[in-house]
Amino acid sequence: MFFFCIDLGHAAEQYPTRPVEIICPLAAGGSTDLTMRAVVAVAAQYLGQPLIPIIRSGAAGAIGTAFVAHARADGIPILIAGPSSTVIRPLVEKVSYKMEDLIPIGRLSASPWIIPVLSTSPWKTLKEFLDDAKKNPGKFKILSGGVYNHEHIFLGLLSQMAGIELIHVPTAGGGPALTMLLGGHVDISAFLPSVITPHIASGTVRPLP
After folding, report:
1. pLDDT digits (tens, 9 = 90+) for 159-193
2. Which residue, 84, 27, 22, 32, is CA-closest to 54?
3. Considering just the CA atoms, what is the radius of gyration of the chain in Å?
4. How far apart are CA 85 and CA 62, in angstroms?
5. Which tens digits make up the pLDDT trace of 114-148?
6. Which element (helix H / strand E) includes 171?
7. Where are the alpha helices (DSSP H) in 21-87?
8. Can you tell me the distance from the alpha carbon of 162 to that of 56, in angstroms, rounded to the nearest whole number?
9. CB neighbours (10 Å) of residue 78?
10. Where do the domains of the chain lie, and which CATH numbers do they carry?
Protein backbone atom coordinates (compact mmCIF):
# COMPACT_ATOMS: atom_id res chain seq x y z
CA MET A 1 0.00 0.00 0.00
CA PHE A 2 1.35 3.44 -0.94
CA PHE A 3 0.56 7.12 -0.67
CA PHE A 4 0.49 8.99 -4.00
CA CYS A 5 0.18 12.65 -4.93
CA ILE A 6 0.82 14.88 -7.92
CA ASP A 7 3.81 17.18 -8.22
CA LEU A 8 3.66 19.81 -5.46
CA GLY A 9 6.29 22.07 -6.97
CA HIS A 10 7.30 24.90 -4.61
CA ALA A 11 4.36 24.17 -2.32
CA ALA A 12 6.28 21.18 -0.91
CA GLU A 13 8.50 23.46 1.17
CA GLN A 14 5.70 24.37 3.60
CA TYR A 15 3.41 21.37 3.10
CA PRO A 16 0.95 20.75 4.67
CA THR A 17 -0.53 24.08 5.70
CA ARG A 18 -4.12 22.83 6.05
CA PRO A 19 -6.02 19.54 6.51
CA VAL A 20 -5.22 16.95 3.85
CA GLU A 21 -7.86 14.81 2.17
CA ILE A 22 -6.80 11.17 1.79
CA ILE A 23 -8.71 9.37 -0.96
CA CYS A 24 -9.43 5.66 -0.81
CA PRO A 25 -10.43 4.51 -4.32
CA LEU A 26 -11.92 1.20 -3.17
CA ALA A 27 -15.02 0.31 -1.15
CA ALA A 28 -15.16 0.65 2.62
CA GLY A 29 -14.12 -2.33 4.73
CA GLY A 30 -11.24 -3.53 2.56
CA SER A 31 -7.53 -3.49 3.33
CA THR A 32 -7.01 -0.08 1.69
CA ASP A 33 -9.74 1.50 3.80
CA LEU A 34 -8.53 -0.18 7.01
CA THR A 35 -4.96 0.96 6.40
CA MET A 36 -6.16 4.48 5.66
CA ARG A 37 -8.10 4.71 8.90
CA ALA A 38 -5.14 3.47 10.95
CA VAL A 39 -2.95 6.19 9.45
CA VAL A 40 -5.64 8.87 9.87
CA ALA A 41 -5.87 8.09 13.60
CA VAL A 42 -2.27 9.20 14.25
CA ALA A 43 -1.46 11.51 11.33
CA ALA A 44 -2.03 14.88 12.98
CA GLN A 45 0.66 14.40 15.61
CA TYR A 46 3.26 13.91 12.87
CA LEU A 47 2.01 16.23 10.12
CA GLY A 48 0.64 19.04 12.24
CA GLN A 49 -2.54 18.74 10.18
CA PRO A 50 -5.31 16.13 10.23
CA LEU A 51 -5.97 13.68 7.40
CA ILE A 52 -9.60 13.60 6.28
CA PRO A 53 -10.60 10.11 5.00
CA ILE A 54 -12.79 10.06 1.89
CA ILE A 55 -14.08 7.01 -0.01
CA ARG A 56 -14.28 7.55 -3.78
CA SER A 57 -14.82 4.03 -5.02
CA GLY A 58 -15.87 2.74 -8.42
CA ALA A 59 -14.41 1.17 -11.57
CA ALA A 60 -12.10 -1.00 -9.45
CA GLY A 61 -10.27 2.06 -8.11
CA ALA A 62 -10.07 4.09 -11.31
CA ILE A 63 -12.54 6.80 -10.23
CA GLY A 64 -10.75 7.77 -7.02
CA THR A 65 -7.34 7.48 -8.66
CA ALA A 66 -8.40 9.74 -11.53
CA PHE A 67 -9.77 12.27 -9.04
CA VAL A 68 -6.34 12.64 -7.41
CA ALA A 69 -4.44 12.45 -10.71
CA HIS A 70 -6.38 15.48 -12.01
CA ALA A 71 -6.40 17.41 -8.75
CA ARG A 72 -4.69 20.74 -8.19
CA ALA A 73 -0.98 20.33 -7.42
CA ASP A 74 -1.22 21.35 -3.76
CA GLY A 75 -1.06 17.91 -2.11
CA ILE A 76 -4.72 18.07 -1.19
CA PRO A 77 -5.93 15.44 -1.85
CA ILE A 78 -3.52 12.51 -1.74
CA LEU A 79 -4.27 8.92 -2.73
CA ILE A 80 -3.85 5.70 -0.78
CA ALA A 81 -3.72 2.76 -3.17
CA GLY A 82 -1.77 -0.20 -4.45
CA PRO A 83 -0.48 -0.92 -7.95
CA SER A 84 -3.78 -2.28 -9.29
CA SER A 85 -5.36 1.12 -9.96
CA THR A 86 -2.18 3.18 -10.29
CA VAL A 87 -0.02 0.91 -12.45
CA ILE A 88 -1.92 -2.09 -13.82
CA ARG A 89 -5.18 -0.44 -14.89
CA PRO A 90 -3.56 2.27 -17.09
CA LEU A 91 -1.66 -0.52 -18.87
CA VAL A 92 -4.65 -2.72 -19.66
CA GLU A 93 -7.61 -0.35 -19.96
CA LYS A 94 -8.36 3.12 -21.25
CA VAL A 95 -8.50 5.43 -18.22
CA SER A 96 -8.19 9.20 -17.91
CA TYR A 97 -4.79 9.13 -16.21
CA LYS A 98 -1.30 7.68 -16.62
CA MET A 99 1.10 6.17 -14.14
CA GLU A 100 3.27 9.25 -14.59
CA ASP A 101 0.47 11.52 -13.30
CA LEU A 102 1.04 10.22 -9.76
CA ILE A 103 4.14 10.38 -7.60
CA PRO A 104 4.63 7.77 -4.85
CA ILE A 105 5.49 9.55 -1.60
CA GLY A 106 5.52 6.72 0.94
CA ARG A 107 5.07 2.99 1.41
CA LEU A 108 2.63 2.01 4.13
CA SER A 109 2.41 -1.76 4.12
CA ALA A 110 3.45 -5.02 2.48
CA SER A 111 1.43 -8.11 3.33
CA PRO A 112 1.16 -11.74 2.22
CA TRP A 113 -2.02 -13.11 0.68
CA ILE A 114 -4.21 -15.47 2.70
CA ILE A 115 -6.52 -17.85 0.83
CA PRO A 116 -9.54 -18.54 3.07
CA VAL A 117 -12.65 -20.65 2.76
CA LEU A 118 -15.65 -20.93 5.06
CA SER A 119 -15.09 -23.21 8.02
CA THR A 120 -17.93 -25.38 6.67
CA SER A 121 -16.00 -25.94 3.44
CA PRO A 122 -14.83 -29.50 2.68
CA TRP A 123 -11.29 -28.35 1.76
CA LYS A 124 -8.56 -28.37 4.40
CA THR A 125 -5.63 -27.50 2.10
CA LEU A 126 -5.14 -25.56 -1.12
CA LYS A 127 -4.11 -28.78 -2.85
CA GLU A 128 -7.45 -30.36 -1.97
CA PHE A 129 -9.29 -27.41 -3.50
CA LEU A 130 -7.15 -27.42 -6.66
CA ASP A 131 -7.62 -31.17 -7.11
CA ASP A 132 -11.40 -30.80 -6.70
CA ALA A 133 -11.50 -27.84 -9.12
CA LYS A 134 -9.53 -29.80 -11.70
CA LYS A 135 -12.12 -32.59 -11.54
CA ASN A 136 -15.02 -30.09 -11.77
CA PRO A 137 -14.09 -27.35 -14.28
CA GLY A 138 -16.34 -24.27 -14.12
CA LYS A 139 -18.10 -25.40 -10.94
CA PHE A 140 -16.49 -23.23 -8.26
CA LYS A 141 -16.63 -19.46 -7.87
CA ILE A 142 -13.57 -17.39 -7.15
CA LEU A 143 -13.88 -13.91 -5.69
CA SER A 144 -11.88 -10.72 -6.19
CA GLY A 145 -12.12 -7.09 -5.09
CA GLY A 146 -12.40 -5.98 -8.71
CA VAL A 147 -11.18 -6.71 -12.22
CA TYR A 148 -7.37 -6.39 -12.44
CA ASN A 149 -7.07 -5.97 -8.68
CA HIS A 150 -4.26 -7.75 -6.86
CA GLU A 151 -6.29 -10.80 -5.92
CA HIS A 152 -7.81 -11.08 -9.39
CA ILE A 153 -4.35 -11.31 -10.97
CA PHE A 154 -2.97 -13.50 -8.19
CA LEU A 155 -5.84 -15.98 -8.31
CA GLY A 156 -5.90 -15.87 -12.11
CA LEU A 157 -2.24 -16.85 -12.23
CA LEU A 158 -2.87 -19.59 -9.68
CA SER A 159 -5.72 -20.96 -11.80
CA GLN A 160 -3.57 -20.84 -14.93
CA MET A 161 -0.62 -22.56 -13.29
CA ALA A 162 -2.86 -25.24 -11.75
CA GLY A 163 -4.73 -25.81 -15.02
CA ILE A 164 -8.18 -25.22 -13.51
CA GLU A 165 -11.26 -23.31 -14.65
CA LEU A 166 -13.08 -21.13 -12.11
CA ILE A 167 -15.94 -18.63 -12.32
CA HIS A 168 -14.62 -15.13 -11.50
CA VAL A 169 -16.92 -12.95 -9.37
CA PRO A 170 -15.61 -9.34 -9.11
CA THR A 171 -16.79 -6.92 -6.42
CA ALA A 172 -16.20 -3.25 -5.60
CA GLY A 173 -13.44 -3.96 -3.07
CA GLY A 174 -12.31 -6.01 -0.09
CA GLY A 175 -15.29 -5.07 2.09
CA PRO A 176 -17.98 -6.30 -0.34
CA ALA A 177 -15.77 -9.28 -1.19
CA LEU A 178 -15.64 -10.30 2.46
CA THR A 179 -19.44 -10.07 2.69
CA MET A 180 -19.76 -12.32 -0.36
CA LEU A 181 -17.40 -14.93 1.10
CA LEU A 182 -19.01 -14.94 4.56
CA GLY A 183 -22.44 -15.24 2.94
CA GLY A 184 -21.39 -18.36 1.08
CA HIS A 185 -21.92 -16.79 -2.35
CA VAL A 186 -18.45 -17.83 -3.55
CA ASP A 187 -16.14 -20.72 -2.75
CA ILE A 188 -12.71 -19.16 -2.38
CA SER A 189 -10.81 -15.88 -2.52
CA ALA A 190 -7.62 -14.16 -1.36
CA PHE A 191 -7.44 -11.46 1.31
CA LEU A 192 -4.80 -9.44 3.08
CA PRO A 193 -4.41 -10.18 6.82
CA SER A 194 -5.99 -6.89 7.96
CA VAL A 195 -9.33 -7.95 6.46
CA ILE A 196 -9.52 -11.68 7.09
CA THR A 197 -7.58 -12.31 10.33
CA PRO A 198 -10.48 -11.45 12.70
CA HIS A 199 -12.69 -13.98 10.93
CA ILE A 200 -9.99 -16.65 11.11
CA ALA A 201 -9.68 -15.98 14.84
CA SER A 202 -13.45 -16.33 15.29
CA GLY A 203 -13.50 -19.63 13.41
CA THR A 204 -15.82 -18.38 10.67
CA VAL A 205 -13.24 -19.06 7.97
CA ARG A 206 -10.00 -20.99 7.77
CA PRO A 207 -6.90 -20.36 5.69
CA LEU A 208 -5.80 -23.01 3.22
CA PRO A 209 -2.14 -23.99 3.74
Report:
1. 999 999 999 998 888 888 899 999 999 999 999 89
2. 22
3. 19
4. 6
5. 999 999 999 999 999 999 999 999 999 998 877 78
6. none
7. 31-47, 62-69, 83
8. 36
9. 22
10. 2-107 (3.40.190.150), 116-207 (3.40.190.10)
Closest to 169 (Cα-Cα) out of 180, 184, 153: 180
Report how far residue 83's alpha carbon sits from residue 69's, in angstroms, rounded to the nearest whole number: 14
- Per DSSP, what are the bridge partners of residue 173? none
167-170 and 141-144 beta bridge pairing: parallel
- CA–CA gap between residue 191 and residue 147 (Å, rounded): 15
d(CA 68, CA 91): 18
Residues 6 or more apart in contact with residue 50 via CB below 8 angstroms:
19, 20, 40, 43, 44
The C-alpha atoms of residue 144 and residue 142 are separated, in whole angstroms, by: 7
Report the candidate in 82, 99, 68, 101 with the shortest Cα–Cα distance to residue 33: 82
Q: Is the pLDDT of residue 155 over 90?
A: no
Helix (H) or strand (E) holding 149: none
